[in-house]
Specification:
Layout (H helix, E strand, L loop, with lengths): L1 H20 L13 E2 L30 E2 L3 E7 L5 E6 L5 E5 L11 H13 L9 E6 L9 E6 L8 E4 L2 E5 L3 E6 L12 E5 L13 E3 L5 E6 L18 E6 L4 E7 L3 E7 L6 E6 L10 E6 L11 E2 L3 E2 L8 H4 L7 E5 L3 E6 L13 E5 L12 E5 L1 E2 L2 E2 L4 E5 L12 E6 L5 E5 L4 E7 L8
Antiparallel strand pairs: 1-21, 2-27, 3-30, 4-5, 5-6, 6-7, 8-9, 9-10, 10-11, 12-13, 13-14, 14-15, 16-17, 17-18, 18-21, 19-20, 22-23, 23-24, 24-27, 25-26, 28-29, 29-30
């Protein structure tokens, strides 16, 4: 442990020196606690009973909606959906929405802890049968709502990520990647999907959401698979192929682990300037209110990011046994912390032209909200500016108001995407809505 501590100290010193020499538009003091490229991490707190504090669901009324940043307005692009978790914009401007929830996972609900978590999830509006479908929203009317809605694909198995490559639409179910034939303009696909890749699932399937994106050249798919536990308490044998991003080559159907040690990676996007793959990652719980920050980072091929043995580089998680100090020594420090327990799920770079120039090239993060922290954290969408392919400043609140004044969750943001006109779309799984944000004076009605 002394050798490991020494390694961690050297790594921390090197990281601090690098930050000190790097150009920056903001000082460390201007970042909120647990945010930014060099967050100050407190000592871990170990308690017999973990903090459980979930905002009870109290969905919006028909007249209510979140609050957009100054100069912007928000409209309901679609209401009365069934637990919408993810959104994806097709090249013709149609919007796909994954209406989905967790599959059956009986071995994840065992024991006292499992029962408590299931109770809290029910209170938070997260326990309901999965609709298992993808809905297509088309056009924008004068009120900012979709002109039409159609069931696009049904009979899925807890779908989440979606990506179009050529004339094929790939959908990440909880246990497999499926391929569907796509024809522009169609409002439904009735041809059964073809399985192209199995994904880790099973009776635990702790982090069930699987996201998917394609490389800019269309040669590869990248698929996120979350861990089967908080910090390996189910044993490493249950983590085979998990806590990772997989790469799938379309020409050969060969798959391989692309990056590992990512506890629960979700949103992925290609940074516009460098075309590097970035990902939003949920970190571990039960180490205190301010540990461990979620983060976003550029993903290095073959990189290891610590889970479960360490966090934010070489900070050792002593709960994990046996330890692997030689692996911890290689753990990559993430690029940017996103606050502790914020449940940062959505990630999209802004490449539209509708928003002011200060937003161009930056990233929006959908933060689903905490369950393991007092006071609450997350429950909002934030924007982080980029310059030279890297984050260049503190986070800015962009869409808020998901928590009522008395601490109830009127909504919880998940997926974020930019639509064909440059507006921001936000999937809200508690509010059962997709919100659309535009500059206040913009009129963007379309077919």
């Amino acid at each position: 442990m002394k050798a490991l501590a020494s390694t961690a100290a050297v790594a921390a010193a090197c990281a601090a020196a690098a930050v000190a020499l790097a150009p920056s538009v903001a000082t460390a003091e201007s970042y909120p606690v647990g945010w930014g490229p060099n967050p100050q991490l407190p000592a871990p707190e170990h308690t017999l009973i973990p903090t459980v504090d979930v905002a009870p669901a109290a969905p919006w009324s028909a007249e209510e909606h979140p609050t957009a940043a100054a100069g912007f307005t928000v409209t309901a692009y679609a209401r009365k959906l069934n637990h919408p978790r993810w959104v994806y914009t097709l090249p013709n401007g149609d919007v796909l929405v994954a209406e989905t929830n967790a599959p059956d996972k009986p071995d994840d609900d065992k024991g006292i802890k499992g029962a408590v978590m299931k109770h809290e999830q029910k209170k938070a509006g997260a326990v309901s049968a999965s609709a298992d479908r993808i809905t297509l929203l088309r056009g924008v009317d004068a009120n900012g709502a979709a002109r039409s809605r159609n069931v696009f694909i049904q009979g899925l198995h807890s779908p989440f990520g979606m990506v179009l490559v050529g004339n094929n639409l790939y959908v990440a179910d909880t246990d497999a990647v499926l391929r569907f034939p796509y024809k522009e303009g169609e409002t439904s696909i009735r041809t059964p999907g073809t399985k192209v890749m199995d994904l880790p699932a099973g009776t635990i399937n702790h982090h069930w959401t699987k996201n998917i994106t394609a490389s800019p050249d269309g040669k590869y798919l990248y698929v996120t698979v979350g861990s089967n536990s908080n910090a390996a308490e189910n044993g490493m044998e249950a983590e085979t192929g998990r806590a990772a991003i997989w790469q799938f080559e379309l020409a050969t159907s060969k798959s391989r682990l692309y990056a590992t040690g990512l506890r629960n990676a979700n949103g992925m996007g290609w940074e516009p300037q460098t075309r590097a793959l970035w990902v939003a990652v949920n970190e571990r719980d039960e180490l205190g209110n301010n540990l461990v920050p979620d983060y976003m980072t550029a993903v290095k091929e073959g990189g290891f990011y610590g889970w479960p043995y360490s966090y934010f580089g070489q900070h050792v998680d002593t709960r994990v046994s046996p330890q692997k100090p030689e692996l911890v020594a290689t753990a990559i420090v993430p690029d940017y912390a996103l606050g502790a327990h914020t449940a940062s799920l959505g990630l999209t770079f802004y490449e539209g032209k509708l928003f002011p120039p200060s937003y161009h090239g930056g990233v929006f993060i959908g933060q689903h909200g905490s369950w393991n922290r007092k006071p609450f954290s997350g429950y909002k969408v934030v924007f982080i500016p980029f310059s030279g392919g890297k984050p260049s400043g503190p986070p800015q609140d962009f869409l808020t108001g998901f928590l009522s004044k008395d601490g109830k969750a009127q909504g919880r943001p998940v997926g974020v995407a930019v639509d064909g006109q440059g507006a921001l779309l936000v999937a809200d799984d508690v509010g059962n809505s997709v919100w659309r944000v535009t500059p206040a004076a913009t009129k963007t009605a379309s077919r």
